[in-house]
Amino acid sequence: MPWILSSARIARLARHNYEAELQLLDADMTGLPCGAKAERATKGYFSSQGIRTGRQQGRVVAARYDEVVCDRLFTGHVQLTTALQPLIEATEQTLALTAEQRARTVIRMDAGGGSMNDVNWLLERGYHVHGKDISTKRAEHFALSVEQWYSDPRRQGRQIGWALVKSGQYARDDLRRIALRWRKKNGQRGTAMLLSTLEPADVFALLGKPLEQLADPQTVLAAYAQLYDERGGAVEIEIKESKQGIGITKRNKKRFAAQAMVMLLGQMAHNFIVWCKRWLTEAAEVAKLKRYGVPRLVRDVFTMSGMIEVGEEQTIKRITLNKSAPLARHCLKALQALLKREHVRVILGET
Fold first, then answer.
1. For 319-338, how does the pLDDT look when each residue is reduced to its tens digit (9 = 90+)?
2. What is the pLDDT of residues 66-119, one digit of tens each?
3. What's the average model confidence in pLDDT over 55-62?
4. pLDDT of residue 289
5. What does each C-alpha distance from 228 to 180, 260, 266 come to in angstroms?
6. DSSP H helical ranges for the chain
7. For residues 167 and 123, is the Cβ–Cβ distance under 8 A?
8. CB-based burial of residue 245 (10 Å sphere; 0-12 exposed, 13-18 middle, 19+ buried)?
9. Phi and psi (nearest 5°) for 285?
């Protein structure tokens, strides 16, 4: 069908209007445990599993569109502090980013990508940066320069404030530092520092907040912190959904190149599911499907039984959905609107 001809035409991130709004890209890593005999499998840190043997998968996600930009496979001991630059270089190649587009692109990452070397590399490439400083000691030191702390309305017990830092440490002088502090469960104080080149108005635009609130310093600081916190609902959720819905950690190949191919197939499957959800929800208003992520779509929508009738010219004439399927009536209206131009009838029936 004409709407599955080219991923460049389908993917929203490839058609992003950089002049109208910033592109927000999230970078992160996830572990792929495997046997010690697998090629380039090494011991490394695997999140909740601790130290074990496997490989690491780096991922860059377009947060606004829930689409995976690129996946790259690394040895087990590699973390984001080593993988960030190769991931961004792969992203530039995938999206064919120009200097003007890089200047309108925000790279958001956790402390793993917040080393001074990585941040300066991104700044020299022309990107915007929004992430956490890797150094806790540096955060504690610069937190002492905060003149006024504000309570974070979104996180009880957390305080935020502008860190007053001299220029010269980073490649650009417009890099802002926001100090965060909170009380840990053991009673000790936790401290972190956010690094951002974004103007307050840009942060508000990315969050969809009204610009009238820019006059409130507490709201501005809270917005910077919120924009960082929301990376957990973007790249981390996309990785989790790929694990649960597609099973990207359950298929291990001995050869490194074979595992990389399996990884790329998982990336393609993830994006295709995201596109299918968009086609269904844009063709007709189906509120229930809008709430579904990759696992629910795979489990409840893509497993729906039915029949396809093919005409003499090997074209689809009619699709019959099993009316006893729980989501059949929800999908009926969407598929009817989606396939109307293809002259394909969609009905409910017994299969």
1. 999 999 988 988 998 899 88
2. 999 999 999 999 999 999 999 999 999 999 999 999 999 999 999 999 999 999
3. 95
4. 85
5. 12, 30, 27
6. 7-10, 80-95, 99-102, 116-124, 136-143, 200-207, 217-229, 235-241, 256-283, 287-290, 294-296, 328-338
7. no
8. buried
9. -75, 100
Confidence of residue 3 (pLDDT cuts 50, 70, 90): very low
Q: What is the pLDDT of residues 197-234, one digit of tens each?
A: 999 999 999 999 999 999 999 999 999 999 999 987 77
Token couple for 109: 């990452």
The two tokens of residue 104 are 């309108």
Mean pLDDT, rounded, for 245-273: 93
Q: Which residues pair with 318 in a beta bridge?
A: 309, 345
Structure tokens at 301: 């929508």
DSSP letter string, 203-259:
HHHHHT--GGGGG-HHHHHHHHHHHHHGGGGTHHHHHHHIIIII-TTS---SSHHHH
Question: What does the alpha-carbon distance between residue 149 and residue 145 come to, in Å, rounded to a whole number?
Answer: 11
Beta-strand relationship, 67-75 and 159-162: unpaired
Cα 288 from Cα 285, distance rounded (Å): 9
Measured distance CA(77)–CA(44) in Å, rounded: 4
Rg, C-alpha atoms of the chain: 23
> Distance between CA atoms of 99 and 102, rounded to whole angstroms?
5
Q: CA 136 to CA 122: how far, in whole Å?
A: 21
Within 8 A by CB and 6+ apart from 29, the residues are 56, 57, 58, 59, 74, 78, 79, 80, 83, 112
Nearest to 249 by CA among 44, 63, 51, 56: 56
* DSSP, res 268: H
pLDDT at site 84: 97
Binned at pLDDT 50, 70 and 90, residue 58 comes out as very high
Instruction: Return the SS3 of 323.
Output: coil
What is the pLDDT at residue 228? Answer: 96
Nearest to 8 by CA among 86, 88, 69, 92: 69
Tokens of 138: 């540096």
